[in-house]
Structure formats: structure tokens, C-alpha cells
Amino acid sequence: MWVGESRIVDGQSSRWIPKWLRPWLAKRWVKAILVLAVFAAVGLILMLGADRKDTGYWAGYTDGQRWVHEGGYRARDESITAYCRAQAATQRAGTFEHGCVDGARNAMK
Question: Positive or negative CA dihedral for 80, 81, 83, 89?
């Protein structure tokens, strides 16, 4: 098969593509827009799915930063790990403690 050659022979028609849509699909820019739209839709689905998994981490990260900025680490002589473990016990997300430790350590830099 040569480049640009159609697999549909002149006498045959595709049962999946409506007749009114075939002239539009013959244009290269329409095909390009369709490809971009499909990739954008798949990317959006993956992005929305991945965002929910990271919510616990970022909640812990901001909590750890807030705790350090409010003087929690200096005011109370407890370790970052102990504070984050205690805070994570009240959270449902499994990555909250890891995010809390990262946020507190970065806030102390």
C-alpha cells in the first residue's frame, strides 16, 4: 500500500463512517484535528485520574509547611515524623504522612 492510498476501493464503502462525513475525512486538516482531540481527551482522563491519587500527599505537604511556619517545630519539641504520623492517623489518604514530612522539611530549609 502506498502513502496516501486508501484501503477502501472505489466500489466499497465503510459501514462505520457515515456518507455525509466521508468528504470531511478526506481532508488532512480534519484528520489532524481528530487525532489531537483524541490525544487531548486521553490526556485529560489520565490527568484527572492521577490528580485524585496525589490529593493526600499535597494535603500533608501543606499541613507540614503550615506547622513549621507557625513555629510548631520550635515551640514543641516533637519530631517532624511524630507530628506527621499523629496527623496522618486522622486522615484517610495513605500518602498524607509522606507529604507532611516532605513539606515540613522543605519549609525548614
Answer: positive
Whether 32 maps to a domain, the answer reads: yes
* Residue 5, in any domain of the structure: no
Expressed as residue numbers, the domain containing 51 is: 19-107
List the grid coordinates of 41: 481527551
User: pLDDT tens per residue, the chain (109 residues)?
Assistant: 566 555 555 555 678 888 888 888 889 999 999 999 999 999 998 888 776 667 888 899 999 999 888 887 665 556 888 888 888 988 866 789 889 989 988 888 7
Lookup result for grid cell 506547622: 67
Measured distance CA(8)–CA(63) in Å, rounded? 60
Residues 96 and 49: their CA atoms lie apart, in Å, by 18
- 61 inside domain: yes
Q: Considering its fold, how many domains does the chain have in total? A: 1
In a domain, 88, yes or no: yes
H helix count then E strand count, the chain: 5, 0
What distance in Å separates the CA atoms of residue 92 and residue 56, rounded to the nearest whole number?
Answer: 8
